[in-house]
Every structure is written in structure tokens, then in C-alpha cells.
Amino acid sequence: MSRPPGAELMRDPTPDGRFGEFGGRFLPEALVPACQELEEAFRGAWADPAFVAEYGAILRDYAGRPTPVTECHRLSDRLGVRVLLKREDLAHTGSHKINNVVGQALLARRMGKRRVIAETGAGQHGVATATACALFGLECVVYMGEVDIRRQALNVFRMQLLGAEVRTVSSGSRTLKDAINEALRDWVASVETTYYCLGSVMGPHPYPWMVREFQRVVGEEARAQCRQLLAGADPDVVVACVGGGSNAAGTFAGFVDTGARLVGAQAAGGAAIGHGAPGVVHGSKSFLLQDEHGQVSEAHSISAGLDYPGVGPEHSYLASVGRAQYVAADDAEVLDAFRLLAETEGIIPALEPAHALAWVVRAAGTAELPAGSTVLLTLSGRGDKDAAEVMELLG
Amino acid sequence: MSSRPELESTLRSRRDQGRKLLVPYITGGLGDWTDLVRAAAAAGADAIEVGIPFSDPVMDGPTIQEASMRALAAGATPAGIASALGRLDVDVPLVVMLYYNLVFRSGHRRFARTIADAGVAGAIVPDLPVDEIGDWARAADDAGVATVLLAAPTTPEERLSRICDRSRGFVYGVGLMGVTGERRSLSAAAAVMAKRLKAATDKPVLIGIGVSTAEQAREVTEVADGVVVGSAIMRRVLEGGGPDEVGAFVSELRAGLDRERAASA
């Protein structure tokens, strides 16, 4: 019997942190020992049943896991395909980001670090990090681009309520890319006492791998829930939005060895896979939007969470071996999808997963997603944070 | 082109004559930068580091970030800077500093050839640590370009010796935990870094990052063979200083280093 597709995919990276040719650890020397130490700590923790049990208990009792899978009856009728939503919007703090930060905050505590720094784009990772730091009594500093601070004012206030210091980043494009630069600059100076809680499956080894492992719970739950709903079958297609790609990585990890097609939905103005070329920024090699000389381009999207010119290295690898397909949705179709889900299902999605829904709407009934097929979509976060911006855009 | 001297032999022979080494940094592509390089050379630099600006300089503080952004806005490109370096009439070794994506995008061999053809003696790629250096180092070695590696205060001993072994030209010791930028006083980490590197290698040991004044340069070269000074120069440039100001400041650094030599002789 032939092995299922992808049975060897989404396991451990090579010892030098590679997924195929992608990944690695491209960092200033000052930070390399810290990443080695982190890798060792993560390996130890993830193999330690006590750590895994505590992580699982916090996700259950504090973060509200497992999150449900919701069957969208009215939307399915409208589109002619059966749509299931993995409801990460119902996790504590309103997005999947909590899964990763609980894992990393436990790791920070285990490593004896009392200060945590993070970058944030849409603010969801910042809010989640501030939440975990409040829970564990850790000092928290969040770097956020000036542009994002303006469009995500509510999340800024939430982080402050949770006791975090939000530092405005005014360099470069003043969005997520620059917030990461600034967090790295902080870390170069503070690495001996500070834990860098990266929010997505990007950055230097071991982050892409570690964050995927902390998000794996999304895909593993969804797979079991789908099998229950679908009489033991898997969905035909699994789709998730991709900025750095953490919710997609966690989701795909649960389905990579099934027959399901995997689709990552990027923002049209940030589609590193498709419009980018291999490059190295923020510690790893991956597809990257850049000019002919290698200067990193600025991404453009209404969604602050997808406003990033790179993508996690494992996604570049999954694309290069053909196991996952990466598509793009533009701002207009995303806004339509945002409204459609609100009107048909009573769920206001975050703008990020609205990209995944926009692709479903576009593909439904075509060869991409034939009528009658079943699609699981990870609804990575709720849309409250975006309501004010969408209100402005819809005028 | 170029009859400019080789990096390591130049620095070694000057050091062995009892001279403390001075490597000023100038951001390439910014205004009259080639005149600044000439002025620094004339004022007593032993080699000159020229920054090729990058959009996301994570090892750099506000001063060099600003210089890089202005240079990029003015249209600076790696090829343009290399070509200007090729025409530059200075007789000290030139070293380029740039982030890895610029090398990677160009292609290792092509980039190594481009800068070698421009008479550039060495390259510093601060986000390419010793573990990831393979492809670039082979291309650079083949082209005759010295790859200068950085060692940091957090680098453990075993790594430190690997870095010293693999570094060419000199070893660049990071003088503090942090990004480039001026500091009021020299970090205690600088002397520790210098001592560790001097114990590990016979190659020239230069300390950079957080060395901002003649006095700090003199202090750190009590142990180190020399210094790299960047932000203190580029701040003067950003404030409108031209070749005269840069030349005067480099002379001041030179005098600080030579005073130390005279005192200990």
C-alpha cells in the first residue's frame, strides 16, 4: 500500500533548522547562542510529559479548548459547497494566537526569563502575549508599527489594560515588518534576561518549528472533529489564511497526511508565495517580496495581520513540493466575504480569515472547489478588532 | 581594477609595528560619500568600512538606520556603490558591510566577483553567522574577498574559536550587547570581548559597536588591536558635516589611538 501524501511532511526540521532549502538561522551573532538555548529548552519541554500536560490544561481550562467546528448551513446553501469552520475566534483573547503564547510563556518561565517581548501586527499576538504574561506574572513589552497602532486602537488599549507596555515603531513601513526589526533590536541588547515571544511560524530556527508545534492543536482537533461530522472522512479541502502563517501551519499539520487539499490564502498585496522570490529576512530563508537588489518591499493589505512581505519557511517548502497551494485575495473580495459571513451565519470574522473565506467564495462551484465538496476553513480570529476600520471602509 | 592592499596582511603589519588600527565606517550612497571615504583615508584610517544600505538593518540603531534610509531614498544600490568603490582613489583596504539578503539576491559568486572587481578587500555580513556562512565563504574565498566574522559577548568559547578560525582580515568583536549607536561610556563588555579574542587568535582584533569617542577608542585599544567607529561619524554626516568634519573627527580618533601607542612605547 502506498503511503498517504505528506506522511513525511511537517515533522522536525533538519538539525540546521531547514525545511528543504528554506528556514535556517540567519541572525546577528549575539542572538545565535540564545536561539540554540531556546531550541534546547523547547526540545526538552516538548518531550517532557509534565510540560505538555500543563500546556494542555491551560489551553483547556483557561483558553477554552477545544474550540468547536461549526457547520455553516446558510452559507453552504448560498455557495453550493459544504463549509465547516474551525472556531479559533472562540478561543480566549479571540484568536488562535493564545495557543502559541501559552506554550512560549511556559517556556520563558521554564528558562527563568522574567521579561517577554513580542511584535504585533493586527494586535492579536500582542494581546495574547500580554494575556499570558499577566497570567504568569511576567513583564511584557510589545512592539507595534505606528500604522497598525492607528488602525487597531482597541487592541492597543487591551494590551495596556493587561499590563503590557506598547512601544510605537516609526521606522520603515511602520507595520509588522518593522515591529519585528525593533523587537530584534531590543533582543540584541537584552537577550540574557529577555524571552522573545515571536508570533508566527517565521524567524530563526527553532521558531518556525516551535510555533507550528504550539499551533498543531488546531489541526489535530479539527481533524478529529471533521471525522466525527463527516462519518470518518476528511474534508476535500482545508483552507486557512497566511501572513506569517501560524494558524495555517497548525491547521495543515493536522491534515498534511490526509487526502485533503491544503490551501493558504494570502493578501493580494502580501503574496510572498507567488509574487516573491527566495530571500532572507528576520532570521530565515523563505519567499519574500523584494526588489531586484534584495531590498524588502512593503506589503499592502487592509488586514494588519497579513501586511507582511515574507512568509514562514515551512509554507515555502510546502509550496515548493506541491503539498499546499497558496492563493491571494484582494481587499474588495475580503470585505464582501467579511459581510457575507456576518449576514449568513451571525459570525463576524477577523479580516485575516476573511481572506480564506474570500477564496472559498471565489472558488466555489469551479474546478478549484467543485459543487458539493466539503471545505474546512480555520476562522483564526473574531472581527471585533476590525469593526471600526471596516465601518470606515464601507462608509 | 585595483592595486589597493590586501586586508589581513595590511592590518597585521601595521599592528606589528605597534600601531593601533582605526577603521571608520561610512554609509555608501549617501550624498558625497566617496569624498567622505577619501577624507577618512587621508586622516589616518587603516582600512575603511563602507555600508551598503539595506531596507531592514536589524543590527543598526537610529543613526545608521537613518543614513541607510536616506541613501536608499537617494537611489543607492549595491551595484552602484561597488562601481563607485572601483573608481575610488584611496590606498587603504576597503571593506563592505551589508546584510545577507543583498548578497543572496545577487548570487554568492556574482556578488563576490562584483566587489572583488571593484578592489574591495573584505566583507562583513552581520546577519550571516558562522554556521550559515558556507556558500558565501566559498565564493568570497575564491574571489579573494576576506569574510570578516563577528564575535559577541554572548558567544561561548567553543564558538569563539570557530569564529576566529573562519574569520579573514580581522575578527570583529562586538563591544556591547546592543545595536550600533553612540554610547556615553565604553561598556565593560568591550574589554572582556577584546581580552577573550586576543587570547583566542593572532589575527587582528578590532572592537566595534558603542565605540564613539577618541577616549573610548584609546581605552578599548589597551587590549584590542583597533576599533571600528560608525555611528559617531554618521551622526556628524546626518547633521550636515562634510569631508572636512569627517576628516577632523577621524584625525581626532587617530590622535587618541596614537597617544596610547606613545604612552606604552
Q: Summarize the helix and strand pattern of chain A as letters.
A: EEHHEHEHEHEHHEHEHEHEHEEHEHHEH
Strand content of chain B: 5-15%
Distance N to C terminus of chain B:
39 Å
The CATH topology of the largest domain in chain A turns out to be Rossmann fold
Assembly context of the chains: heterodimer
* Spatial strand order of the main sheet of chain A: 3-4-14-9-10-13
What's the number of helices of chain A? 15
* Low-confidence runs of at least 5 consecutive residues of chain B: none
**Unreliable sequence segments of chain A:** none
Q: Just name the CATH architecture of the largest domain in chain A.
A: 3-Layer(aba) Sandwich
Helix/strand-derived category of chain A reads alpha/beta
> How many E-type strands of chain B?
8
Topology:
The complex is a heterodimer of chains A (395) and B (265).
Chain A lengths: L17 E2 L2 E2 L8 H15 L2 H13 L7 E4 H7 L2 E6 L9 H14 L4 E6 L3 H13 L2 E7 H6 L1 H9 L3 E5 L6 H15 L3 E3 L10 H23 L7 E5 L4 H10 L5 E7 L4 H4 L1 E5 L2 E5 L24 H8 L3 E6 L1 H15 L5 H13 L10 E6 L4 H11 L1
Parallel strand pairs in A: 4-14, 5-6, 5-8, 6-7, 9-10, 9-14, 10-13
Antiparallel strand pairs in A: 1-2, 3-4, 11-12
Chain B lengths: L6 H10 L4 E7 L5 H10 L5 E4 L10 H12 L4 H10 L6 E4 L2 H7 L1 H10 L4 E3 L9 H10 L2 E6 L5 H10 L4 E4 L13 H13 L4 E4 L5 H7 L5 E4 L1 H8 L4 H22 L1
Parallel strand pairs in B: 1-2, 1-8, 2-3, 3-4, 4-5, 5-6, 6-7, 7-8
Helix pairs in contact in B: 2-12, 3-11, 5-6, 6-7, 10-12
Describe the structure in your own words.
The complex is a heterodimer of chains A (395) and B (265). Chain A is of the alpha/beta class. Chain A contains 15 helices and 14 strands. A six-stranded mixed sheet of chain A has the order 3-4-14-9-10-13. A four-stranded parallel sheet of chain A has the order 7-6-5-8, with helices on both faces. Chain A is globular, with a radius of gyration of 19 Å. Chain A starts with 17 loop residues before the first strand and ends with a helix. The model of chain A has no long low-confidence stretch (mean pLDDT 96). Chain B has a domain of 185 residues: TIM Barrel, CATH 3.20.20. In chain B, β1, α2 and β2 form a beta-alpha-beta unit. Chain B is globular, with a radius of gyration of 17 Å.
